[in-house]
Design brief:
Growth Hormone, Chain: A; globular; 2% strand; 510 residues; 18 helices; mainly alpha
């Protein structure tokens, strides 16, 4: 056995010191907030944009779909590029590109320009999102600091959608729909300055790896077909030929991608990353939580605005207690509970809470009030997401070699994006079917019956959402290893490298 003494390498001040690492977290958090905001902030502005630019109801979906298609299909490529080019360069390019695309969308004078800008946003978001998580993964290697950082990051990932609803309402009502896009420019400017000062380039050892072009084409095509297939199911229904054609193509391309990764000399996604039990459980948990989360925002928003008559701003404010509980749970989980209990306890616990919160929502009716009937389940669901997301995200990137940190991080974003697409399409379809069934059984269709049908359809969606979380609880309990088996939440990305980064001399035994 040999002993290697590590001396302090990071100064107390400067971009590499303790304070610099927290400024790095602030920068990464801004980037993550900007990305997550755009999943919902534009939705509330759509009616105003439609009136201004004069596009049809059928075309309106493309403002959302263009972003999700580009974002979802290019995530793994974006993550791998951050590994190949360098995380600092990729991070800055992603921020600048996202800001330029947002400015183009805000200034759009036609439907085509706005759709093109949203697609560009998605493409640069796919470059930025995994890079942001990879920067966090490789910056915070001291276990206690790592837990805190992922608590903040997980809270933003879970709460950003609700913040987007509030911000979208405020900007649209008080300024213009265009400011739901222009706001990204302001955020990006601050984040770029922070990245230039505090994000370190990282060290490269050995020759520069090559990009797996066939693997990139296969997985990008598969993810594009998958996201588009579920988006098409949401609009055209599950009986549409295009829906099943796209989903079948996604399945074929995914199988081809896996087969290619087994023989590629420079694989885009080494299969060992996703086949590890803990990481596989983490990715699955993020996917299921993403499906449930989109259902919460979508149908509770419908209920508050359509059934209770809330304005967009009041709807956004209604989600604030949920955000507060999410942040509280994220901090308790990462700093107190997860280090002691591990993801095998924390993630199933969060899933069970999510199931309970969804079942609580099924009791809503036209006589419900916010304080008595909506607030309690939202707070339960906020605590649930704060228990699931940070622990899952941290576990998903734990133990990954630095040269694959970007693509491992991209899998987290891919799981959340695919989960959101699946959840939105499935729950929307189930809700629409429930509405038609209810109306067929309660004739004539008066306004009161139509209102009851809508509430009934939301309850059906919540019940299915509860089943998602219930399945997630069982899956997480079975897949996550017990503490002491494999890596724990206190383990750094690369144990030896992590020891070097600490502020006090330690001995690394080999």
């Amino acid at each position: 056995m040999s002993s290697v003494s590590a001396t302090p390498r990071r100064a107390a001040n400067g971009p590499n010191g303790p304070s610099g690492r927290w400024w790095t977290l602030t920068t990464v958090a801004l980037a993550q907030l900007m990305i997550v905001l755009d999943s919902t902030v534009v939705n509330i502005a759509l009616p105003s944009a439609q009136t201004d630019l004069g596009f049809s109801n059928a075309d309106r979906q493309w403002i959302v779909t263009a972003y999700s298609l580009a974002f979802g299909s290019l995530l793994l490529l974006g993550g791998r590029l951050s590994d190949l080019i360098g995380r600092k360069i990729t991070f800055v390019v992603g921020l600048v590109g996202f800001a330029v695309a947002s400015a183009l969308g805000g200034a759009a004078d036609s439907f085509g320009t706005l759709v093109g800008a949203r697609a560009l946003q998605g493409a640069f978001g796919a470059l930025l999102a995994p890079t942001a998580l990879a920067v966090l993964t490789t910056t915070f290697v001291i276990p206690r600091e790592r837990a805190r950082a992922f608590g903040v990051f997980g809270a933003i990932a879970g709460a950003g959608g609700a913040v987007g609803l509030l911000l979208g309402g405020v900007l649209t009502e008080n300024f213009s729909w265009r400011w739901t896009l222009y706001i990204n420019v302001a955020i990006a400017v601050v984040a770029v300055l922070g990245a230039l000062i505090f994000v370190t380039p990282g060290d490269r050892t050995g020759p520069r790896p090559k990009l797996d072009v066939p693997g990139t084409l296969l997985v990008s095509g598969a993810l594009f077909s998958l996201v588009y297939g579920f988006s098409n199911a949401e609009t055209d229904g599950w009986g549409a030929t295009l829906t099943w054609g796209l989903l079948a193509a996604a399945g074929v391309l995914l199988v081809a991608f896996v087969l290619w990764q087994r023989r590629a000399s420079h694989p885009l996604l080494p299969l060992t990353i996703v086949l590890d039990r803990n990481r596989g459980a983490a990715y699955s948990s993020v996917l299921i939580a993403g499906a449930g989360m989109f259902g919460i925002f979508l149908f509770v928003t419908y209920f508050l605005q359509s059934s209770l008559g809330y304005t967009p701003i009041r709807t956004g404010i209604a989600f604030l207690p949920m955000i507060a509980m999410l942040v509280l749970a994220a901090q308790l989980s990462t700093n107190l509970l997860a280090p002691r209990l591990g993801p095998k306890i924390m993630v199933p616990f969060g899933m069970v809470l999510g199931c309970a919160g969804m079942l609580y929502l099924t009791r809503l009716d036209l006589d419900s009030t916010y304080a008595a009937n909506v607030l309690p389940p939202l707070m339960i669901l906020g605590f649930a997401m704060g228990s699931i997301m940070p622990a899952s995200m941290q576990t998903a990137t734990l133990g990954v070699e630095r040269q694959f940190a970007g693509v491992a991080s991209a899998m987290v974003n891919t799981s959340q994006q695919v989960g959101g697409s699946i959840g939105t399409a499935l729950l929307n379809t189930l809700a629409a079917s429930a509405t038609m069934t209810y109306l067929a059984e309660h004739r004539p269709t008066t306004p009161a019956v139509a209102a009851e049908a809508a509430v009934h359809s939301y309850a059906v969606a919540y019940a299915w959402g509860a089943s998602f979380f219930a399945f997630g609880a069982v899956l997480a309990a079975c897949l996550f290893r017990r503490r002491g088996q494999g890596l724990s939440l206190g383990s750094p990305v690369e144990p030896a490298a992590a020891q070097v980064e600490q502020r006090e001399p330690v001995a690394v035994h080999q």
